[in-house]
Fold each of these.
Amino acid sequence: MLEITFLGTGSGIPSRRRNHPAISLRYEDESFLWDCGEGTQRQLTLAKINFMHIKRIFITHWHADHWAGLIGLLQTMNLEKKKDPLYIYAPEAERFVSDIMDLGYWGPRFQIIPVNVPFEGDEETVVYKTKEFAIKSIPVNHTVPAVAYCFKERDVMNVDIKKAGKHGLRQGPLIGKLKKRGSIEFKGKKIRLEDVGFVKKGIKVVYSGDTRKCNTLLKISKDADLLIHDATFAEEFKNRMHTGAKDAAKIAKEAKVKKLVLTHLSRRYQDPKPLREEARKVFKNTVLAEDFMKMELKRQ
Amino acid sequence: MLEITFLGTGSGIPSRRRNHPAISLRYEDESFLWDCGEGTQRQLTLAKINFMHIKRIFITHWHADHWAGLIGLLQTMNLEKKKDPLYIYAPEAERFVSDIMDLGYWGPRFQIIPVNVPFEGDEETVVYKTKEFAIKSIPVNHTVPAVAYCFKERDVMNVDIKKAGKHGLRQGPLIGKLKKRGSIEFKGKKIRLEDVGFVKKGIKVVYSGDTRKCNTLLKISKDADLLIHDATFAEEFKNRMHTGAKDAAKIAKEAKVKKLVLTHLSRRYQDPKPLREEARKVFKNTVLAEDFMKMELKRQ
């Protein structure tokens, strides 16, 4: 199960209601962040998420509202005697993480490892992978090098008991063996999982970071369970740096995602419901992100 | 009148209740900060203080909990089209402000002027002065270059109406003229303000920043109306970097201040009342700082 907590859903300037961008993701024993705006360590505390378990932080781009919380979070991890290394993935990660390490008076006593993520072209890159899931990035279209991130759980094959029955197989240890090994010998015949199975798709979640409407985002969002998209402004105010709510909905519709969350909402909108309504005219299953909103996604 | 708002009263690691250090001071049309920990721009918003009016920020030292909020605050001022210059006073201000300016992608469109504050020796320095008040600094004793700041309103002479009466002067325009000019001619005699006046002391407020118990702080705190002092820990936990609550109270007592506020409270103390009680045994008029606590000080 993937647990998503929105830690900050505002944009460049925070408001009473919305902190700067950051999203916590937890999947089994892995805990990571997408972006880390100013104040993220305190938002984690308020959300009762243990920041000492975070091993990987993925920054979409180096505008301060998306990264300034790194400074405090790294130094707090240091004060709390973090031992495991922390990986920071980003476009130009080596350059900017090195600047952050040199700031003010402190000396890290744990490893901080920057990982550069490609920010040119239109291809997906797997930037981190476990047996269970992968984190992929793809360049997007902002005023500075920027990427979107995608969490993709592994697709698995499951056994269709009816199909298996045709081979004389019944629910039991042999079915478990078949799922695990991919094939078994049964009554002198080889039975392969693909002969009696069907694909159970893994969860897919995409986070746009800041971007103008762009095709790479459409590409990486294809059939996602959840698309978390920049919708800083309503259509009438959309500007040269960001996507408007309506265009975010167009992406969601065209990519055939299951659900759209609008985030990075400008502080201009004390009541951002008009953004949601604008998007819903194009894509019905749209919600507004709120600070501390939680979502749990399970493989269907 | 000086209006003080505590924006953050925690220490290195924020808690649900306490953000990182920052204090807002407003005196007539001057608005400034003492320290600017992570999240200060949002604390200002929550406290309904307009950050666009801030012209001067005084940093005590370059540990991140005291300065990391500068990054976001400067960039927000930039987004909001700040025009006036912003002065940042600190030990080694030029070095560290220059590092901050180079971070991430942004280009300031207003002037940011670092002002180095002496951090060696044991003398007070006037770092900023108006007709009405001065901000002074003095080196304190921390693990890195660090200073305390003092707000000192100008002492003024007022007329003692009884004394003035002996010279035949009565309440009226001539008294106003005497106060303004310092002397007047009356019935052929020169009357000087000091002959018929008395001193009305200006408000004095001192903020220690982070420090071990030290004599320079005692010196600059002499007869202050308010001493805001580092009291990270109780006596039993006081460490090599900070003052304990009891020692802060000793300073307050010896300096004969009117009131002591304990701040920079460790997140160890969910209930910090024992710190207050420990201090009150030495210095009775002690209170604990709380986020968003306000104090108004007027010349008596």
Amino acid sequence: MELIFLGTTAAVPSSERGHSSIALKYHDEVLLWDCGEGTQRQLIRSKTSYMKVKKIFITHYHGDHFLGLPGLFQTMSFAGRSEELMVYGPKGIKNLIGNVLDLGEYELSFDLRTKRITGNFILKDEKCTIRGIKVNHSIPTYGLLFEEIKGREFLIDKALELGIKPGPAYSRLQRGGRVKIDEHWVDPEDVLGEIKKGYKVLYSSDTRPIDGILSSCDGSTLIHDATFDESLAKNARETYHSTCIDAAEIAKKGGAKELFLTHISPRYKKGEVLLNQARSIFPRTTVARDLMRVKPIL
Amino acid sequence: MELIFLGTTAAVPSSERGHSSIALKYHDEVLLWDCGEGTQRQLIRSKTSYMKVKKIFITHYHGDHFLGLPGLFQTMSFAGRSEELMVYGPKGIKNLIGNVLDLGEYELSFDLRTKRITGNFILKDEKCTIRGIKVNHSIPTYGLLFEEIKGREFLIDKALELGIKPGPAYSRLQRGGRVKIDEHWVDPEDVLGEIKKGYKVLYSSDTRPIDGILSSCDGSTLIHDATFDESLAKNARETYHSTCIDAAEIAKKGGAKELFLTHISPRYKKGEVLLNQARSIFPRTTVARDLMRVKPIL
């Protein structure tokens, strides 16, 4: 699992920072969380194949979070993509994608499906779940929570002790089934240990500090809106954003493992002021930079 | 007068090159010729104020030439622009802008007017004319010709010799009126010399080599499609683009002063191959790079 910050600015780009997008590389798949203008070029710059993007999540309909979609779709078509692409977003996603597909003279080469993110949104496969978390911004907006699903540890020594040989019986037990050995039944509980740790990544999107993020935060790699430093707390309140202190307090109270500040106002260059303020509360803080690659803490 | 190449790639961006756009800085105004994805950021990088962009010309409706519009409009609105913006483009410009304005949740803070570019398109003010030139691409496409309007040189020595004192009589003669001095009439022809040289910039947009560009080329700074090198002439024909040799031949036959190759396929990095081929025909050739600044030859 790897996170790549493709764009980390707030609203307006700067020489240093492009518009919002985060790539999650997981197994052979790339998920995009938001897709601001310039995302296709940042994917190319980060040597992340846009053809491996299977699912795109748009957290809300401010342009700096989705205006990279039309160009990305057109480039995918230009490259002859045939694999279906899913795009998730709040109410209105179908209309938005309809408008996006109306832009310009080209043929979409692949199927594009949309699905609405709601407060109950859960996407689940055998490897992970992704949930939508309603946050508090000026328009309907959802944060996103990625949780890897990990099975329980298989205690090989215990299995051997009970006379079970490596093979199909192991898989059966791992999947929760019982196995009969020499007239005795062995239960999964006899050979399964702790649940293995999985990655947990939580993205606040654009928001005021909010309970929904706080309560999902435990043990996570938290990526939080930190548009302003604390001296501009008034601006943060007025524009429904967070300060770096807001983000650090969520990380601390919520028990995050690490915190990445993003959606940085272009008034901050490298963001030392944000970093110093946030670290005074939550030391494991980093200010995200464009093209920064991160392996989340397990 | 200064040209800034904001984006010089063909279709798909690369680490080196972004999508098509050229800024013409002229007096206190900025014109944009095409506005591909990422143009607003390139304006910022080149320290060119997006608030000074008064007119945008979209040469055709392939996404790599206009998908920077929605983000640019939103950023201008975010910055509180109130000045009217004109957007010119081929048939369909009104619909296109309608779709672009439908994208996302924001209020446009300024008036946005559109005007269609046709084969007869001429925009004229006291300083310059801009013409549309129909070119030969896979969809309706116009090249653009900028010509500065310059008056004739005023021959001060001759005027003094004829007994005319500096003042209103000079202006009258410069504007083409006669002046009476000591019962003699002085005609403009008596005191006006050569027409002063003005800037002439010709942009082919995406096209096969075409007579319309050739015949407008004399004395110009020519910016020409050079998507491919000559070994891929077949690709150029099939996709309605030009090779660097096509561009150089137009420049040579048409009498351009200098040639800039643009719309460079991402397969070429620095473009030496394009440069060497083109210079074998037209030595004053440069391969445009993103953020390259050029003062056209007078």
